[in-house]
Design a protein that fits this description.
With 106 residues, the protein is an all-alpha fold. Helices cover 58% and strands 0% of the residues. Helix 1 crosses helix 2.
Length: 106
């Protein structure tokens, strides 16, 4: 019997192993963006990975990345949008997505 892949598992793997922490620029194998981190997971090929990337892009719309969304939609001062702060936000958002999908049983 094949194990069902959960969206929360894909997200958890992206957060733990593939999303850059914003502290060290020598972390070449980490990804700055959540969608790139998801694609870098062993399950990046899975249809659920493609689906969650579409959800993330929909939530950011019409902006192409979190930094633009924070500046234009959340009205965060550009002075506060350092690499470290943006990455910290990405990690919090990814934690919230994990909780959202775990609550759904996915």
């Amino acid at each position: 019997m094949t194990k069902t892949i959960k969206t929360s598992e894909i997200l958890r793997s992206a957060k733990k192993y593939h999303l850059w922490w914003g502290e060290d620029f020598t972390q070449e194998f980490y990804n700055e963006h959540i969608c790139h981190a998801i694609n870098s997971t062993p399950r990046g090929y899975h249809p659920k990975a493609a689906f969650i990337i579409k959800i993330i892009m929909y939530r950011l719309c019409p902006h192409g990345d979190v930094a633009s969304w924070l500046k234009k939609t959340a009205n965060i001062s550009p002075k506060l949008l350092t690499h470290k702060n943006i990455q910290a936000y990405r990690h919090r958002w990814l934690a919230a997505l994990i909780a959202e999908y775990e609550a759904k049983g996915d």
